[in-house]
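Lab meeting minutes (informal)
Scribe: AK
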Amino acid sequence: MSRRGWVLFLAMGLIWGVPYLMIKVAVEEFSPATLVLARTAIAAVILVPVAATKGQLRPLLPYWRPLLAYTLVELCIPWVLLGYAEQTLSSSLTGLLVAAVPLVGALLVWVTGHERVERRRVAGLLVGFAGVALLVGFDVGSANLGALLAIVGVVVGYALGPLLLARYLAHLPALGVVAASIGLTAIGYLPVGLLQRPSRSPSAEAWLSVVGLAIVCTALAFLVFFALIAEVGPARATVITYVNPAVAIALGVLVLGESLTVSIIAGFVLILAGSVLATVRDRAPDRAAAVRDGGSSGECLAEPIPEP
């Protein structure tokens, strides 16, 4: 991988590891719905004009139904559930639990018959889910059931989103799909987000978290991610999935003073190992997938990284 590729890779690992910290700070003063509205509205103001200028919105019109379904399962539902969960769970633990997305994604791919079942992948699922069970048993035991179910909803939504995108929207401009989805989410949350807005002015720290989520972790993140795909291809770009949880854990411990337990470390190792085993493909299929999904052009993306 080139030097530019490494820079983009490390930038994405950091950018998409930070949101859990920012969400944790923001939901102290913003309701989850208001946070989603603020985040998507600001990001849409940046991304929609860029996509429109490039002519990447008009091709989406005939596919508004699958685009709406993708928006619901990838953004609308997971983002509000993520905010709700972090009202109870620590940012580091949330980031680690969401790291189970590749495991659930692999399971869904097999269940729907898109790929064959191999012993290595079955072993990966078992190892990864053992890591999740370890976390649930030791570090989530004191959390309320609602927060845990919210994370389940986030993980399932993030796993379903790429399947919908790959089946119905993969041939469309990636930036257009992302910009339209973020814009639709902002419109959808406008009534409830305004209704649940804070009764008193939020602190500067909370506002900085919201603005950081919108500009850095959403708008800039996708632009950098597309540049990463163009530089290294879609198959290699997906590896950042395994970096984000480590960043989330480190930031939660260093910035928010969250505890780093033995079960968190062990759970992280098991989830990481299981995800790698369950999702790694043979080299030949990877090259074929890269060509099918747009090669190194970055114009289309069939398997996006779920962005927190």
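Next up, CB showed the second protein from the same session:
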Amino acid sequence: MDELVKRAAKDLAQSNYAVALTGAGISTESGIPDFRGPSGIWTKNPEAERRAYQSYQKFLANPKEYWEERLSKPSYLGDLEKMKPNSGHYALAELEKMGILKCVIAQNIDNLHQRAGSTNVLEYHGNAFKLRCVSCNTRYNLQEYNLEKLREGGKLPPLCRKCGAEIKSDIVHFGEPIPADVANQSLQEIHKSDLMLICGTSAVVYPFASLPRIARKKRTPVATIIEINAEPTPLTFQRISDYLIQGKTGEVLPRIVDEVRKHIFGRG
């Protein structure tokens, strides 16, 4: 692993536009459960998975019922406000501060990248701490709406203050299109990149999983694709990635950052 860490650090130090794609693997190291792993939420509770597949259609058919159900049940992910960024999150934020990492495109909805200090984060599947208008894509912090008061007053669903349309959670549900603004910005970042870090994602959930494949096919600039995952993925087997550093993101990423510092400051 040592040689691969040094190789990744050298590739990063020599890159012009590096981006990172992150998935559940980086969040599980902060104690947030995944969904389909051996101890995953849906593995243990198939009924929860069935309801998750129905959420978007329920919102379209009956936004009031959608919100009443969400407000009556605790999150399967637990209290995300109590979760803290781990060393992997902080390492990516440090790479941004060094001017190397230009953007994080995250599958996770937990806001931990921002809390660690990353400022250019595209939340591909939304943010649990935000609300979003499905008509104009305006986003609001949860605190901007008193959802319990609206519920008690029989005034659900909340309405967009910009266009008046119904608002849902910013989380992207099954069957729901990726918000156009995030999808377009993500593609722009991919096309500009000459290096991609893939951190803690199984790369099987689409359309997110298409992003490294798009990076592999583009001709200019040619992208170096580095996987940091606990296990090989389809990207490994299909040779989408150039190489895999097998391990936990919270252990591998800080080591890469240390080596990058040596390249930048001439130590070691």
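CB comment: The chain has a mean pLDDT of 92.
No objections, moving on.
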